[in-house]
Structures are given as C-alpha cells and as structure tokens.
Amino acid sequence: MVGTHTHVQTADERVLPGGTAFITDLGMCGPIDSVIGMDPDTVIPRFITALPSRFAVAKGPVVVSGVIIEADHSTGRARGIERFIEVFYDSPR
C-alpha cells in the first residue's frame, strides 16, 4: 500500500505483520524546483490574489521517487520494501 499527497517521500517504509508493504508517501516525479511540478512564478501570484491563471510546467532537473517491493509469489505477501529517489540533471526541461 503506497500513498502520495505531500510529494515529499517519507522514510516510514515497512512490511506490516500481515505481509503488506507500506509507505505513507511515495514521493514526487517531476521538476525539483517547482510547486508540485509547476513553475513557481505562475503559481504564487494565483495563491496571493486568488485570481485564475494558467500554470506552466517548471524547467530544470527532475526527480523520480518510488519504491521497490519484493513479493513472495507463492503467498502474494511482501518480503521487503525499499524506497529510492533519483535526480536527473540532464533533463530536457
């Protein structure tokens, strides 16, 4: 069971007693210097004024966050869970 909301990967991954792999927040995939992937210069004015505006995707390095879950194929239960974060500085964005 993986969750995501804050886009900041948590460090609480574990396998629960019944064999369910768990992490509260899987993390974000997208531009690092952003507001949930969007260019801050297009998001902050909307936040301050509450007026509608178009968001633009942020540029720069991107991050891919996630987990690798090892499963027992005979029982379907998790054996382990490992989180990862990879940053790509040569992103075309």
What can you tell me about this protein's structure?
This protein is mainly β. The protein has a domain of 48 residues. Strand 4 and strand 5 form a beta hairpin. The longest helix is centred in the middle third of the chain and has 10 residues. It is elongated, with a radius of gyration of 17 Å.
Distinctive features:
single chain, 93 residues, mainly beta, three-stranded antiparallel sheet, two-stranded antiparallel sheet, 11% helix
Give a topology summary.
Blueprint: E1 14-15, E2 21-22, E3 29-31, H1 40-49, E4 62-71, E5 78-88
Antiparallel strand pairs: 1-2, 3-4, 4-5
The rough form would be described as elongated
The portion of residues forming beta strands comes to 25-35%
Strands ordered across the widest β-sheet:
3-4-5
| Main β-sheet description | 3 strands, antiparallel
Give the SSE string. Answer: EEEHEE
Q: How many helices in DSSP terms?
A: 1
The span between the termini is 31 Å
Total number of strands: 5
Instruction: Tell me the Rg in angstroms.
Output: 17 Å
Class based on secondary structure composition and strand pairing: mainly beta
Average pLDDT:
92
- Estimate the helix proportion, in percent: 10-25%
Assembly state (oligomeric): single chain
Low-pLDDT parts are: none
